[in-house]
Amino acid sequence: MNNQETIAQHKQNLRLELKQRRRSVTPAQRDRAAEQIAKSALALASNSKRIGLYYALPNEAPTRPLAQALWKIGKHVYLPRIHNDRHLHFFLWEQDTVLESGKLGIPTPTSNNTEIAAENLDLIFIPLLGFDQSGHRLGMGGGYYDTTLSRTAQPIKIGLAFECQEVEQVPVEEHDIRLDLLITESRVLRFQ
To answer: One Pfam family this chain carries (predicted)?
Structure first.
């Protein structure tokens, strides 16, 4: 087995463990975390106008309270759609936007909504399965965020996670992007 296969296998094993950790977060813990994460994220987004967000799936760090807070202060919020080129394209998400089931069953605005290129976002909140103290993240394995964000230094990349998702070291491959910041229910980590 070569080094690439070893890293890929390690990532796969870690994903299984981290999915279980995420599932162990109770609904009450998730609700409290959502409030704390939204509060910290809102402070970081105060000087930004165009913000990329993700539609949180049931076990992910919740984003709905953050979206509502951003809308309340007049921010433009964009959700990703997966395109055939494996890149994410971002479309305006407003309170009254009707969402449809996109690829992988994730709710997304239709492609008729206003689109913005990832590099024109001021900051982007990114889902993840795991993170470490160096700013490396482990995603679900599709590589959509890595593919999309590897082309540009902008936007500021902020991971959202529960504390239980921290690992000692995320296995890293050449194509993996690094986070600039990470927010959990109890802290904000800034990476160099």
So the answer is: 5-FTHF_cyc-lig
- Which residues of the chain fall short of a pLDDT of 70? 1-4
Q: How far is CA 66 from CA 17, 137, 161, 164, 176, in A?
A: 27, 21, 13, 20, 26
Q: Which residues contact 63 (CB under 8 A, 6 or more apart)?
A: 53, 54, 55, 56, 125, 160
pLDDT tens digit sequence for 73-83: 999 999 999 88
Q: What is the pLDDT of residues 13-33, one digit of tens each?
A: 999 999 999 999 999 999 999
Give the list of residues 6+ apart from residue 4 with CB closer than 8 angstroms, or none: 173
pTM for the whole structure? 0.92
| Helix (H) or strand (E) segment spanning residue 20 | helix 3-23
**Residue 72, number of CB atoms within 10 A of its CB:** 10
User: What phi, psi does 183 have (nearest 5°)?
Assistant: -120, 130
Set out the domains of the chain in order of their start, with CATH numbers. Answer: 3-190 (3.40.50.10420)
